[in-house]
Every structure is written in structure tokens, then in C-alpha cells.
Amino acid sequence: MAIAFFDLDKTLLAVNSGSLWIRRELALGHITRMQAMRASLWLARYHLGRVAMQDALLQAMSHLQGRDEQPIRERTIRFYEELVRSQYRPGALRALEEHRSAGDRLVLLTSSSGYMSELVARDLGLDAILCNRLEVDAAGLYTGRPLGEVCFGEGKRSYAQAYASGAGVPLSACAFYTDSYSDLPVMEVVGRPVAVHPDRRLRREALRRGWPVVDWGTPATAGVVALDFPSQ
């Protein structure tokens, strides 16, 4: 048995669900234009390498303190069904089936929320979820803190290592598929790191290290297109 870890946004999905969520929350009046601009600024600064996404995630969680969990869970379900469920890459679905046929465990490893991750795992038949979860008190209100380590960057590697160790599987027998340079800490420790439709920094790093670079297509296309497979 091996383990195949999969990132979610821009990897299994052809879109970034976080950006879509911000726009939808703004359109529905659940956040202000200033809050949406602030969130977009954090994302822009992160992509420019000027801020750690862990800080942005922790800040976003802190802003939920005292709010009721249930409405957000319910809005996430509607959001997923209306805007996200149709966005799986065709190549991602095939890769999942190939690993499933080989008897591998399929594990979602994402910075997305537990609410979104549970819906994805249900539809794709995944074996486990490693993601960001929010602490909720006995009254069903957010405390503003995460449950455990933030699942991003080095945090993702910690989650992957702990899961593999618990399953008795060496990381050398694991694969990880992602589009993001921020996931480099995980790619460096698994036996098969694969860059899927990678961002510019990850593409450059993957080519330098001889990692496969693939494009799994979009919902409007078919097939898995291999882009760059450097000589080993």
C-alpha cells in the first residue's frame, strides 16, 4: 500500500475556491467590500512573496471569533454545489482512479476548510482529509483559533508525515500532486512529487529537480497532457 496526497485548489480543481468564496460572500452581503479587498490584498502579497500565508489564515480565523458555525457550514454546502463541484480537472479524476485501482490510499492535503474538504472527500471517495479546521466552543461559536497546526507550507509537511507514520507507510512510498510552490516542503519528502499545472516558481523548481510537470486539463477539455518530463 502507498499513499497519494492531493492538493485541492488549482490541482484537483481548475479554480481557486478561496477566491471564489470571497467574491460570493461579498455578493451575498456576508462580508464588506473592505473585508473583501483586505483578503484579496493578502492573497496578492502572498503571491508576491511579501507575506506568509499562515499569518493570513490565522487572521481570517480570528475574525470569526464569536460567530455561529452553522450558517457558514450551510453556505459552504451551497457554494460547493453551485460553483465548485463542476470544476474538477478531468485528469485529476483519472489519476484518482489509477491510484485507487493500485490499492493506494487517497488523501486530501489542503489549506482549505474542513467544511469544503468533507464535501470533496465525499464526492471523490477519498480515504482521509488533512486540512484546516476551526475550533468551535460548546455553544457552537468560533473561538477564532485553529484546531491544531495550520495546514500550510511546513504545516502541510507535518500533517503528511504524521499521517504516513500512523499508516505505517514510508514517505518514499507516497506521491503528492500540487500546483503551488508553497507546497515545496511536502514535495521534498515524498517519493513521487508531481507538479500539476504549476505556478511559475514551482515549474522552475520542478524542472531543476527533474520532477514531472503535468496539466490535468479543465472541465471543458479532456485528457491528461504531459508538459515537461526532464531526463532523470
TrEMBL record:
<dbReference type="Pfam" id="PF12710">
    <property type="entry name" value="HAD"/>
</dbReference>
<dbReference type="InterPro" id="IPR023214">
    <property type="entry name" value="HAD_sf"/>
</dbReference>
<keyword id="KW-0479">Metal-binding</keyword>
<keyword id="KW-0460">Magnesium</keyword>
<dbReference type="GO" id="GO:0016787">
    <property type="term" value="F:hydrolase activity"/>
</dbReference>
<dbReference type="GO" id="GO:0046872">
    <property type="term" value="F:metal ion binding"/>
</dbReference>
<keyword id="KW-0378">Hydrolase</keyword>
<dbReference type="InterPro" id="IPR006385">
    <property type="entry name" value="HAD_hydro_SerB1"/>
</dbReference>
<dbReference type="InterPro" id="IPR050582">
    <property type="entry name" value="HAD-like_SerB"/>
</dbReference>
<dbReference type="InterPro" id="IPR036412">
    <property type="entry name" value="HAD-like_sf"/>
</dbReference>
<protein>
    <submittedName>
        <fullName>HAD superfamily hydrolase (TIGR01490 family)</fullName>
    </submittedName>
</protein>
